[in-house]
Design the sequence.
């Protein structure tokens, strides 16, 4: 655990200073786009945060390779190359999209290419354990891996519309996923607690911690598409790589929850982003627009229309992410039946906080009537 905490701290420090440097550089040379109609800020703000996040991730990932603790993680050079190359390419794709607003089809094609490189280099769903049976083929695993990776990247990117929103949501969800992968490693390989999934999760937590002070409202810098898609790619990489840690022969029927959590937990954490992504695509297609055409109809915009402040809308996402990721993680320790009452209480509290701005308006209408 100390090794992971050390790397998280290194990632946070590198990302913090890289973000500080790029913020000052961008402001000095006015490297920032014009304010758009759907933007929630009124002061021109740099969008170079994704570059700082990549620097924090890449340098920390490289430092881990120099430490003897993580020797087993770096045994397969193709996987290491795949992670670094795909991370660099998605950051560059997002950077150019931030600068030149790339055509949606070109951007989507680039995402599929990056996800394909990652999967081809060995980061993919190795097996899917179902009641002791292992199913899946190389071709099917490759296709499913690419689809999941692109889906998660876009889900994270679609909610990047408010200060501190993506960094905080990813921080909360990835912290829960790190705990899961670490405990899973203890159970499946007692002599070696180090894995690619835990390593990436720890670094992502550190990157978000280092970036968030500059992105908190009022944000001094945005992560842009480069940062959002990078975080989505790394979340997908961590989730997909952990599926290979589980040997179905070692799991009884009562142990099936650990087998499915690597796929369920990231999707549960991203339930709001995935919902937002789905609704946005359907809304735009119904209007005859591109599924990736930007608008002001995202969930975080609707929360503000509902009456939440900018910060309040962000906190709604934090609350739901904490509830869902915490509940999913708790199932790893205790039976689902024991978690259910606490989940119901948390659900009631989360719904109350989400809908509370509506209550004063209804009371006002009743008084006026």
Sequence:
């Amino acid at each position: 655990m100390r090794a992971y905490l050390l790397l998280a701290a290194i990632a946070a420090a590198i990302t913090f200073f890289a973000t500080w440097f790029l913020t000052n550089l961008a402001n000095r040379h006015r490297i920032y786009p014009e304010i758009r109609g759907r933007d929630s800020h009124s002061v021109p703000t740099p969008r170079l945060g994704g570059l700082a996040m990549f620097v924090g991730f890449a340098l920390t990932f490289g430092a881990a390779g120099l430490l003897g603790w993580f020797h087993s993680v770096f045994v397969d050079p193709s996987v290491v190359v795949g992670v670094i190359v795909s991370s660099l390419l998605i950051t560059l794709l997002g950077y150019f999209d931030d600068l030149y607003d790339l055509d949606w089809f070109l951007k989507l094609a680039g995402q599929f290419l990056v996800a394909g490189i990652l999967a081809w280099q060995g980061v993919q769903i190795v097996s899917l354990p179902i009641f002791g049976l292992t199913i899946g083929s190389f071709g099917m695993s490759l296709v499913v891996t690419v689809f999941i990776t692109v889906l998660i990247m876009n889900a994270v990117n679609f909610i990047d519309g408010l200060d501190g929103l993506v960094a905080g949501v990813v921080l909360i969800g990835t912290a829960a996923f790190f705990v899961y992968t670490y405990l899973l490693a203890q159970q499946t390989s007692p002599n070696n607690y180090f894995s690619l999934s835990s390593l990436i999760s720890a670094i992502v937590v550190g990157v978000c911690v280092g970036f968030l002070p500059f992105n908190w409202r009022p944000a001094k810098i945005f992560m842009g598409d480069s940062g959002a898609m990078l975080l989505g790619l790394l979340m997908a990489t961590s989730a997909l790589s952990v599926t290979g840690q589980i040997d179905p022969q070692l799991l009884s029927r009562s142990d099936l929850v650990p087998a499915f959590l690597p796929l369920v937990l990231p999707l549960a954490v991203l339930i709001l982003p995935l919902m937002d992504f789905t609704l946005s695509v359907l809304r735009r297609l119904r209007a005859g627009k591109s599924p990736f055409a930007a608008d002001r109809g995202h969930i975080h915009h609707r929360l503000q229309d509902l009456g939440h402040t900018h910060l309040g809308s962000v906190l709604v996402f934090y609350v739901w992410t904490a509830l869902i990721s915490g509940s999913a993680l708790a199932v790893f320790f205790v039976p689902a039946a024991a978690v259910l009452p606490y989940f119901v209480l948390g659900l009631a509290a989360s719904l109350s906080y989400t809908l509370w701005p509506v209550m004063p308006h209804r009371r006002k209408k009743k008084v006026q009537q």
